[in-house]
Specification:
By secondary structure, the chain is of the alpha/beta class. It contains ten helices and 15 strands. The radius of gyration is 20 Å and the shape is elongated.
């Protein structure tokens, strides 16, 4: 039987390796009750060493605040560019796609701008910067969704932004997210943005999540969908082994850029 200090070390070592743990898993691995591990987690949380959330523990508070596009654009830029390059490989001539707002989806628009050549493409987006960039391409047709402009994301939101979606069917929806969580699925920082993304998912045959590895284990305020509703996730090689297993066990195609 391990001592309290040994259990605490085991928990923290697991957290440092995987980023999060499930209380049930640790209890099984150590041969103790879930109550024992819950108490251990409470003690470690009181010392500021982890953050407890519904049957699991994480190294830090997973809940994130809304940030403006300019701030996001400087975070993990190289990883976002690699993700965007892999995302372009999913496109074919004559494709019709939807692109959400976000710094990673803008990297996708830049990759399309630099690599599509004479291939034709139909793009539907609420993101003003994507519309502006891709409308420069002769063979790309851009449908800008209307509605109120949200300044932090430079994108339209609200009921008016969804009105046209009822008349559209696209092959793929490329969505940038603020969080990818095993329990809470894919999330973004505001409810309005999440609601628009839900409508765009419904109007597309496949949903492709573009998320650098820092987004895994994080949670935004607005819930978009459960992990099982996502078809493809493209991320960078910083994703943990445990998170890879969670995603693949959900039947999602995982592409590492």
């Amino acid at each position: 039987m391990l001592s309290i200090a040994e259990r605490h070390k085991y928990i923290l070592d697991k957290l440092n390796e995987y980023g999060f743990i499930r209380i049930t898993d640790v209890a099984d691995e150590l041969g103790v009750t879930k109550v024992t591990i819950r108490n251990d987690v409470k003690i470690l949380e009181s010392k500021g060493l982890l953050y407890k959330v519904h049957g699991s523990a994480r190294l830090a508070n997973p809940h994130i605040a809304d940030r403006d596009l300019e701030t996001k654009s400087h975070l993990n830029r190289e990883a976002k560019q690699r993700i965007a390059t892999r995302a372009v490989e999913l496109l074919c001539d004559g494709d019709s796609i939807m692109i959400s707002a976000g710094s990673t989806t803008y990297a996708l628009a830049e990759a399309i701008h630099n690599s599509m050549g004479d291939n034709s493409l139909n793009v539907v987006t609420p993101f003003l910067k994507v519309s502006e960039l891709l409308s420069e391409l002769e063979h790309v047709s851009v449908e800008q969704l209307g509605g109120r402009v949200y300044k932090k994301s430079c994108a339209t939101r609200g009921e008016n932004a969804t009105l046209a979606l009822g008349n559209m069917v696209c092959s793929k929806f490329f969505v940038g997210v603020d969080g990818v969580d095993p329990d809470f699925g894919i999330t973004t920082s505001t409810i309005e943005e999440a609601q628009l993304s839900q409508k765009m998912m419904a109007a597309s045959s496949k949903t492709v999540v573009l998320a650098d590895s820092s987004k895994f284990g994080q949670r935004g305020f607005g819930h978009i969908a459960a992990l099982e509703e996502v078809d493809i996730i493209i991320t960078d090689d910083g994703i943990t082994k445990e998170m890879r297993e969670v995603i693949e066990s959900a039947g999602i195609e995982l592409i590492i850029a």
